[in-house]
Amino acid sequence: MFTKGVASLFAIPFVAQLVFAQSCTRSYTVQAGDICDSISAANQVSTYQLAVVNIDTIDAGCDNLMPGASICLGWQGEDCSTTYVVQLDDTCDGISSMAGVNSTILYMNNPQINEDCTNIYVGEVLCTASSVQVPPPPAGGSVPGSAIPATATPANPDDDLPWCD
Questions:
Q1: Are 74 and 24 in contact (CB under 8 A)?
Q2: What is the pTM (predicted TM-score) of this model?
Q3: Phi, psi for residue 68 in degrees, rounded to 5
């Protein structure tokens, strides 16, 4: 009786971990020279989603990728594979229009974008699905994927709106 009780106590954390663990639907093996944006672009996963599903694996600057490591690209029921790679002079309105989605859905699928859409950068991969398909940001702290790489080029560097030229 005592042994079963002790074994049950030790099993509780493992069972709880299994119950709360997300099911990875797609994975990728990191290659030498990979960066988060290149992985995202090549595998149709947004920069934000890659950061969220690997929050315990990939750091905020995405500078700890290890060749040979397996990372998750999406979770069951929260896996956006409809993406767009940001180009120079892109705006959120332009991306929404091009993708045929309203701006509310674009922002909900990409919560790292600020209200004025001034923090998107060339090479960033956005989810452009017509419904919300990404996991929500974790509670507390900053939104994963919101750190802009130091070498990134802003999509609209002078905040110049194309129709105001």
A1: yes
A2: 0.81
A3: 95, -20
pLDDT score at 64: 94
Contact 148, 157 (CB under 8 A): no
Give CA–CA dist 50/74, Å, rounded: 7
Cβ of 39: how many Cβ atoms within 10 Å?
22
Please compute the mean of the pLDDT values over residues 28-50 and round it to a whole number. 96
How much is the pLDDT for 52? Answer: 95
Residue 154: strand pairing partners: 121
Q: Using CA atoms, how far apart are residues 98 and 1, in angstroms rounded to an integer?
A: 66
CA distances from 101 to 94, 107, 136, 152 (A): 10, 10, 19, 26
Beta strands in 6-164 (DSSP E): 24-29, 70-75, 83-85, 125-127
User: How many angstroms separate the CA atoms of 76 and 163, rounded?
Assistant: 41
Q: How many CB atoms lie within 10 A of CB 109?
A: 24
CB 155 within 8 A of CB 118: no
| Among 86, 84, 82, CA closest to 123 | 86
Task: Note the pLDDT of residue 48.
Answer: 96
- What number of helices (H) and strands (E) belong to the chain? 5, 4
Give the rounded distance of the alpha carbon of 117 from its chain centre.
17
